[in-house]
């Protein structure tokens, strides 16, 4: 059972950062994963008094506080429009509304969980994270880093004209994904597919060979699916084996491409 | 006779209390100040506890006691809730020095707070001598590794058990010359079907609270289906007389058979008996998933012989059942895998049913809705579907040619005759509901998905013939309302209401005039408990009997008040009337008179047991939408037609059916049980063991095709268990019709549909 | 830590342990409708409203509810009786253990979306597990209630 000695509702990011330098401290996001641990936390740091629970829409981006709930993301009309509806699609399978009212974007991203739908979606969307000390870096880079004691302040999602599709397969409807993928392509950016729940952390595969540059067709979608599947490493866990995940990566990336190309997979 | 209460969709008596969240469950009504009881569980699948160092744990403030194998009584018992002498072997101790699966209790810790107990558990130091374990149930029989090498192991019944061979039971039965019949068949289908140790996963985990009452007796309040068996088992386990124990149950948060085994009770009972302090144990979900009483894993080998014209002539079925570390329900569940699958086919000239039930070093199995029939029916119904495919005969048609009919004798079902059987109508009805003719076998949609259908039939029993006892005490109170006391346990099924409906019907009164009280070993008449689909059929008949006798007593009392003979008096539910004089006396007056200078108790108790166990029947059909590229299966619709005899409460029967089907869908598609190499269950939470959500079950449609069972109350048979039996074979059949692949192991997850090559 | 939580309209002040979960805080204060069915935030039995939003009280620290408003089924008895009657008429309450969580989340759904479609109902309530009913009876009850409610409104 998780035990917590002290609870501090941080009054500033600086205070939160200072407290978090101790190994026995923990930032609490939605508490959902932390609760399941048997950790003995000396100081639990709550960021909920710092105004990080808002989604600010700016001209070229969304600035999303780390304490924004998954449910807020799911219901935000601007995000829905900007992500082609894929934001809702990546979230709606996650346990239930009550869970998503608690789970935070910060918790989902900072945890860099292998199974994360959220990490997969935001990576494909070209998100950046803003760290209290580390400043702004791409989510792709952040996801590859080991966990440290910095604080994730917000996530910046660029608004880029383009299309996006989220696809996942689950053994049952609200389970973790067996494999998840998001493909985004736009006027200013080449297509890229993020593949998550491999079961390792999501990774980004860019269309470096311009497979889709001449347009999305059945054939190019198929090819890019195969390309992405070849590029990623998959593994086995209790939900499925590596071989099937490879296969799924190909199918789901292809389908995502077809969807953004206006063809149903 | 026009029925007023029976066959009506009466609201459950406790419905509004439950829906408005009233505190009626164990943890809500337990007294304050109970010691928290938890157990330390073995991390090894097979080991000897060499030493438990309790010193540090005992020093934790608030710790009341730590118990190990050295502290508990040495006589073995079974935790299976069954009628004495139990077929399940006496192979348990409260704590055993020999721990036999990952999760087997090593020590009991009791303390004032959960925090203290958790801390003490961490501080217990245990030295184990780790032994090699037998984890594969196919290798258990006659293995060098013995799960129960001890000489104190004992089997009370001749079930073919031998602990020195890892055998919990074995046996064979049959009729006709099976080998000759099979040899004479045009076609043989022979395969092995594997089902796993699925969890009941009722929403309320196992829990028990114990106190010492004012007479110094052990007072046990438990979330159980079987108060009387719990009393005996605790008496056996603690070595104290039954007279010193009282067991009762509050409202139960689901059971499905899980609570037909004494999973939690012995630990707080031991703590309270030793400390004389109130204590409570609440299983975590993890404990409920890993140290409880799931379905028996079974491998069923089926050989079906038929002629080219579709005549099914012989079935040879062998079941290998895995009872795990202990033998609860091992010898009995296995029987149903044959006795409640083979009789579905009335055309058989011969059959053989043989089985072995083996001990292994995994969690011990128990009773789960369907109780072996589910596993056997998955196997046989799948084999018959495979036969239909081989013969090129529509599987619905094949069944019509061979299924059991009303009036037939069923050699594989203890020679019982079907006095009520509407299986033929069930199959027709289900086919109509799903549109079998149009949909069989498949069609391909524009998006590449395949829509296909599948079918299965099922049967079960209604109580255990010649064993189960149902009883009812009916008492008339002063205002003329009745109290019905029962020992059966309403676990959400609505039996309190159903039995009250029957009583209301018999007593010709509104159902509001019947109050129900159960189950309490001190107050209730003896009832073997709510399991084996017995309550409606067995206890229902006891209610009928009790009502008839109470009516006589009321008539006698009324006639006495009217100063006339009973032969000229009549009771119509409201008044006793003297038919000659026309004078009458009301129930209220009779009730009041019975409490002044009366020598006649307006209370009767009746028991009932049945020499037969009439099977309910059912047909189920699944329509699925299968995505061939990903293997994803979406259940579109499930159509079921059930013959449970007279439907006592259409609403409750319907919801029982829908609920059972949903559980069957989970079992077919994703409820998995996997072990690590060291015998640890991976699906140890509701995060990993996925039960269906409302997005996973499609549209479930249920209709009833009633027969009339002459031996049942108002013609009723059972419904509780049969409803889980059809989804697995029907869905697997639909998957075959979509993909051409037979899946003979459950669950069929998407990965398998894409990746497995399946032989034809 | 000293906290003040408004539970069903009543202010409760208490010195709460930092790791006390909201579910245990609520049960200790008589809100026994709040049930626990798992340890992994999966079952939905412990659903309560926190500042009007349905959340899993097993996954919220009591200290985090400081200064906030919590509603449990004890505080929504009228709504529970009105809506619950429709579930009762289906016999879909069954063992009843998951009912309070379902009632809470259904009430949250009705507040957020008074006329939900079937798919919206299923998706909103997907986090409320029930092992007894197979969900069909719950759906029939919800739809009957919504139809009745619509009749009352118009």
UniProtKB/TrEMBL annotation, chain A:
Keyword set for this entry? Flavoprotein, Oxidoreductase
**An annotated Gene Ontology molecular function:** oxidoreductase activity
Q: Does the keyword Chaperone apply?
A: no
Q: Where is the FAD-binding PCMH-type domain?
A: 1-162
What Gene3D superfamilies has UniProt attached to this entry? 3.30.465.10, CO dehydrogenase flavoprotein, C-terminal domain
InterPro entries, from UniProt?
CO_DH_flav_C, CO_DH_flav_C_dom_sf, Diverse_Substr_Oxidored, FAD-bd_PCMH, FAD-bd_PCMH-like_sf, FAD-bd_PCMH_sub2, Mopterin_DH_FAD-bd
Superkingdom, taxonomy of origin: Bacteria
Q: Which PANTHER family match?
A: XANTHINE DEHYDROGENASE FAD-BINDING SUBUNIT XDHB-RELATED, XANTHINE DEHYDROGENASE SUBUNIT C-RELATED
Question: What name has this protein been given in UniProt?
Answer: CO/xanthine dehydrogenase FAD-binding subunit
Native organism is: Cuneatibacter caecimuris
UniProtKB/TrEMBL annotation, chain B:
Origin superkingdom: Bacteria
**Nucleotide-binding keyword on record:** no
Question: Where does the Aldehyde oxidase/xanthine dehydrogenase a/b hammerhead domain lie?
Answer: 20-132
The alphabetical list of record keywords is: Molybdenum, Oxidoreductase
Q: Name one Pfam family in it.
A: Ald_Xan_dh_C
MF annotations from Gene Ontology: iron ion binding; oxidoreductase activity
What is the name of this protein? CO/xanthine dehydrogenase Mo-binding subunit
Q: Which organism is this protein's natural source?
A: Cuneatibacter caecimuris
Automatic annotation (TrEMBL), chain C:
Highest rank taxon of the organism = Bacteria
For this protein, the record's Pfam families field holds: Fer2, Fer2_2
Ranges where the 2Fe-2S ferredoxin-type domain occurs? 1-76
InterPro entries in the cross-refs:
2Fe-2S-bd (IPR002888), 2Fe-2S-bd_dom_sf (IPR036884), 2Fe-2S_ferredoxin-like_sf (IPR036010), 2Fe-2S_ferredoxin-type (IPR001041), Beta-grasp_dom_sf (IPR012675), Diverse_Oxidoreductases (IPR051452)
Q: Which UniProt keywords apply?
A: 2Fe-2S, Iron, Iron-sulfur, Metal-binding, Oxidoreductase
What are the GO MF terms of this UniProt record?
Answer: 2 iron, 2 sulfur cluster binding; metal ion binding; oxidoreductase activity
State the protein's name.
Carbon-monoxide dehydrogenase small subunit
Q: Which organism is it from?
A: Cuneatibacter caecimuris
